[in-house]
Amino acid sequence: MNKKGLILSIFISLIVILSSGSVFAEDISNANSDDSASSPIANDAVYGEITTSSNYTVHTGSNSSTIQNIINSMHDGDVLNFEKGEYKDICIYIDKNITVNGNGAQLIGYQTPGINNTNIPDIVKNTTKTGGYGISNFATVYILKTSNVKLNGLTMVSLNSTTYSNAVLYAYQSKNLEIINNTIIGSSWGIYLQTCVNTTINQNTIKNQATTGILNFGSAKSIIKNNKITNAVNHGIDIRHGTGPNVTVFNNTVIGSKEGIYLMHSGGHTVYNNTLINCTISSITCYGSSNIYIYNNTMFKSRMGVLLGSGFSNITIGENNYKLANLPYPPTFVYYVGIADSAYQSPQSVSGTYSDSSTYSPEYANKIDIEAPKDIVIDYSGILKPTGTTYTVPVGTASEDIQKMIDSMKDGDTLSFEKNGIYENICIYIDKNIKILGNNATLIGYETKGVNNSNIPLKVWKKTNEGGYGCVYFSVLYLFNTDNAVVSDLNIVGKAPGYNPNTVGTTTDEYKTTSIYSESNKNITITNCDVKGSSWGIFLQYNKNAVIANNNIHDQYTTGLINFGSANSIIANNTVTNAVNHGIDIRHGTGPNVTVFNNTIIGSKEGIYLMHSSGHKVYNNTIIKCTLSSITAYGSGNEAIFNNTLSGSRIGIIVGGGYYNVTIGSNNYNLDRLPFPPSFPYYIVQADNKYQTPDKAQGTYYDSAKEPKAVIIVDDITMYYKNGTKLHIALKDNKGYNLADTPITVTINGVSYNKTTDKNGAVEMNIYLKPGVYTATVAYAGNKTIGANSVDAKITVLPTITGNNITKMYQNGTHFFAAFVNGQGKALANTKVTFNINGVFYTKQTNDNGIANLNIMLRPGHYILTAYNPVTCDEQGFSVDVKSLIEASDLTKYYLNASRFQATIYNKDGSLAVNKEVTYNINGVFYTKTTDENGVASLGISLRPGNYIITTIVDGLAMGNNVTVMPTLVTKDLDMKYLDGSDFTAQTLDGQGNPLANQNVSFNVNGVFYHKVTDKDGIASLKIRLMSGEYIITSYWNNFQTGNTIKIA
Q: What are the Right handed beta helix domain coordinates in residue numbering (predicted)?
């Protein structure tokens, strides 16, 4: 017997002596310390309540089957110890309560699951019906339906990271797991917990996952602490699904994921004291999660702090340390909190017009009024045609010699580089209206400005008061103060080195570098250029009407193309690749009404960035794999975004920081998402001003669909005018408690009234509205704990005067009647009331039923009758239309034609008056006529040409009309000079005003008669040869004569 057996025998004897009964071990086996891993150190012995566990050792180099056999031979409570070393092609499972001490051992998984999954143990992959666990995920290590497993000190590696369902460590339906001090490398998922309970994941190093570092899927009450997760592409730590699951995440460090900590469709989590670094979309995301507390986290170098997505509720954000990604100048603002509300979580629902809710109302309107863009035609044949004198730059010409050549040129000249030529150490400027035709030449800039700016032309950097341009940017090519300048077909390489974005400041030379710098130019064209390197590729500042088209811009460490305060630019058909921050950046200036279309942008943080400017149209662009958003509108407005293809970014469009009237039309969204478990895209994220400081970011947040809204109680009311009825309003929280001393707004009839609730959460309002039906909108703006709400109530104000509009014939027996009541609707009997019509007041007394009447004897016309209630001070207006007994129209006729004046006559009951005598008065003469069977009386008009009033008189009513008699012989006075050749003319017309040819017209002037015949236009002409003086000429035709004056100077 060895030493271990001897000690065990003595121990058993003592127990036998001290006990009243005995426990015998029948299957005790002995193993010495030299047993191999395939002959494990074994076996617990149990006596009463005393348990001993066995230790098993896995020797370096053991294969997967050997390790699995050892695990299969173990019992609950045993300990598995790995020797330090490397173990290849490992795929093992643990389905019992054991402790695994890795001791620095490295387990390297298979590269593939094998043909027909032969590299996965059968029990793992077999269905539950056949005695397996039915697991479809491929992992290096599985923990399956067990409890109290401790995994410590292992390095676990998965060589397969391309298959989405792969994991390094996969735990399924297990309890009380401890995963401590391990290193997890590779795969799609590092640690994948599925429906586990009470797991502790502590002090692990997890890196290089294609999807997620730690996935806690439906696993309740996990504690995830003190882990370091690096380069997990999608999420560092992902907590999702399940009722609860009340996970605590603290003291972890996540570096380089899209979203550092991702909380989805679950609740009850606490996230604190974590450090999140360089997460490209957000440090922390809550998507459809609830009852979350986020505080004391450090968020470093992500552009967005906390992103809240679709269906979130009760997300409390406490004080956090925000060190978010921001460039110093021009500013690119950070987003402390961004919201992707469930109301806009489909390509269809995202369309509409948006404004920042902090400042503008309404914040959203379901309208898409986008004017179709006009065709933009650019005449490249004219633009690129050489003009003036052409200066050719030989290959290898030095920068200062090129500058001298430019300085010698005149407006309208052309500078031509040799085809495919290479020119190094170039820094030149243009300040005259010339064309540069590059012919595919390459201009390579200096790496530095040189000592005291020696590599930059003096005029570029000298101060303006010294005759220079005062430019602080270092560029290869500058353009200043030109009009219609052209730059084409050049390859421009900016060699200025990059900068450290963690330390760069506004005066850092590396930040202020650009390949093409254009300032204060008009109508400039930059086309067909390849622009590489620098902080900014093309930098437009304070230009007007620039055309930037067909350029290839790439590898900038800030922005590809910036349009700074440059109005009415056209940016079209450019390709921008790998510009770190923004592909195309439009900012500042009044307007500037920039058109951005048909561009392709690949691989920036934000593809197109519209900031603090307005009036832009962004359409037909293709934006691919931008890490934060495809398009951002920050503090910009009155712009339209439509017909773009947004592909591969997680966020389609961000609107932030004071945006207004941003209209989003139909776009093609193909946003970044994972198939399962889902990571949803965000079609639009709103980062409103009210969240745009660390202090403002603190509070509790709800999705609009789940926000606990205030309860507003207000009843419809029906009342008589000014009878003292009040509008009663009660404001409560979502739990029914009164909201005292709380401001609300009541809007009635277009007027808003600001009110504050009393100690009982109530407001009362007197109603002094005129009779009518009104909508009262009671609105509560909400706060950080309870959401906004608004409720409509119907207010019906009944009049205390009622009556009907009347239409009557002139002086018939129709009266106007009105009924009067008091504020309670009781009739005002035997009360004096007042009527006002046509400016005259009449006092009448009501009868026993409160009814008063007024006889209407007014002339035909439209009148407003106002009735006044002396008790309620109500006044009501009614229409009174008095119809005429005479219906006639003005008459215009030619002299002696057949036209007659006609009037239709009515009786006072409205019927046609047949065989009724009618009197006409025209030109002082009275005529009597009788109406026919249609009630019509007519009068022939034979008066000389002129304007007359005809009065029709019947039954005491007289109505006037105009009668105009037009002449059939048309003449006019003549002013002329002696013998200047002037003719006096007369034109003859028929009864319809048409010219009459071949008519004999006579003229009498100065006592002499002349006879003339009209021409085809009805005109007879008389040549005037009289001496100077004034004469009367009389024209005669068709028994008509008319006189005119001829004045001869």
A: 170-321, 512-623
pLDDT digits (tens, 9 = 90+) for 458-476: 999 999 999 999 999 999 9
Going 63 to 64 to 65 to 70, the CA torsion angle's sign is positive
Measured CA to CA, the distance from residue 391 to residue 432 in angstroms comes to 14
Q: What is the pLDDT of residues 96-144, one digit of tens each?
A: 999 999 999 999 998 888 777 888 999 999 999 998 999 988 999 999 9
What global pTM score does this model have?
Answer: 0.69
CB under 8 Å to 274, separation ≥6 — which residues?
Answer: 249, 250, 251, 252, 253, 254, 260, 261, 297, 298
Helix, strand, coil percent values for the chain (each to nearest 5): 5, 50, 45
pLDDT at 336: 85
Same domain, 25 and 51: no
Number of domains making up the chain: 7
Q: Are residues 77 and 199 in the same domain?
A: yes
Per DSSP, the residues of 641-659 read EES-EEES-SEEEEEESS-
The last residue of a domain, from among 625, 645, 672: 672
- Cα–Cα distance measured from residue 310 to residue 264, given in angstroms and rounded to the nearest whole number: 10
Question: Are residues 719 and 643 part of one domain?
Answer: no
Looking at the structure, do residues 157 and 9 belong to the same domain, yes or no? no
What is the structure's pLDDT at 696?
80
Please state, rounded to an integer, the average pLDDT across all residues of the chain. 89
User: Closest Cα partner for 607 from 628, 588, 637?
Assistant: 628
E strand map for 570-716: 570-572, 575-577, 582-587, 595-597, 600-602, 606-611, 617-619, 622-624, 629-634, 637-642, 645-647, 651-656, 660-664, 668-670, 682-687, 699-701, 711-714
Which has the closest alpha carbon to 818: 797, 840, 801?
801
In a domain, residue 267? The reply is no
877 and 915 share one domain: no
- Give the 3-state secondary structure of residue 840: strand
> What is the separation, in whole angstroms, between the first and last Cα of the chain?
160
Evaluate whether 68 touches 56 at the Cβ level (below 8 Å). no
Whether 513 and 615 share a structural domain: yes
**Cα–Cα distance, 424 to 161 (Å, whole number):** 45
Query: Which residue, 860, 892, 858, 878, is CA-closest to 965?
Result: 892
> What's the domain range around 540?
386-499+507-672
Does 920 reside within a domain?
Answer: yes
User: Does residue 817 contact residue 851 with C-beta atoms inside 8 Å?
Assistant: yes
Residues 959 and 885: their CA atoms lie apart, in Å, by: 9
579 lies in the same domain as 666: yes
CATH number at residue 410: 2.160.20.10
User: Is residue 511's pLDDT more than 90?
Assistant: no
Under 8 Å between Cβ of 626 and 601: yes
